[in-house]
Structures are given as structure tokens and as C-alpha cells.
Specification:
It contains 5 helices and no strands. The chain has 109 residues and is mostly helical. It is globular.
Length: 109
């Protein structure tokens, strides 16, 4: 069972790494003078895509962190991570993500 979770965590980490790499390459290629404009250019001129890339990174980090603590044999760290990721906190994060995505989408329409 540990092997499957480790493979899944590596897949999530690889996907997040791909998102970061493509975003960084597009950001560096942008010639816009302001940081906000460069961030938007790296996200195809969409605040929604920019926000979703940020959410992907946060979710991947939270998902992989617990598996990493288990891999390095740190049960105290894993317990503290699980205590921080309570269902009510995850639900609040999902609602906040939905609200910001909705607002960003309305802004770019």
C-alpha cells in the first residue's frame, strides 16, 4: 500500500513540477514591464488560470508533504500535518478557491 501512495505522490509532484516549469518559462519569455502583466502573460492572459496554477501548487504541496514525512520516517511530522488538514479547513479552502475562481473569471470575461 505504501508503494501505491508513493507512486501517486510522485505523480502529483511531477505534475506540479511541470506546471511550475511551464509557468516559469512563459514568465521569463514575457517582455511586459510589470510583474502582474508578466504573471498574466504566463497564464495566457487569464487571472483564472493564474489562480488555478497557484491552487495546484498548494494542493500538491499539501498532498505530497504527508507522504514525504512518512517516507523519511517522521511520524510526528505526519501527525502534525494531518492535524492541520482537518476536514473543515479543507472545506474552507475549497470554498475560498471557488469564490476566487468565480471572481477571477468574471473579471476576465
Amino acid at each position: 500500500m505504501l508503494t501505491f501512495r508513493l507512486i501517486f505522490a510522485c505523480g502529483i509532484f511531477a505534475f506540479a513540477g511541470y506546471v511550475v516549469y511551464t509557468f516559469w518559462c512563459e514568465y521569463r519569455e514575457s517582455t511586459a514591464p510589470k510583474v502582474w502583466n508578466r504573471l498574466l502573460k504566463a497564464s495566457r492572459n487569464s487571472a483564472t488560470i493564474l489562480w488555478q496554477k497557484f491552487v495546484i501548487l498548494i494542493a500538491a504541496f499539501g498532498g505530497v508533504l504527508g507522504q514525504f514525512a512518512e517516507l523519511i520516517d517522521q511520524p510526528e511530522l505526519k501527525a502534525s500535518i494531518q492535524a492541520a488538514l482537518k476536514p473543515e479547513y479543507v472545506a474552507a479552502f475549497i470554498v475560498a478557491t471557488a469564490l476566487v475562481s468565480w471572481w477571477a473569471r468574471k473579471r476576465t470575461m
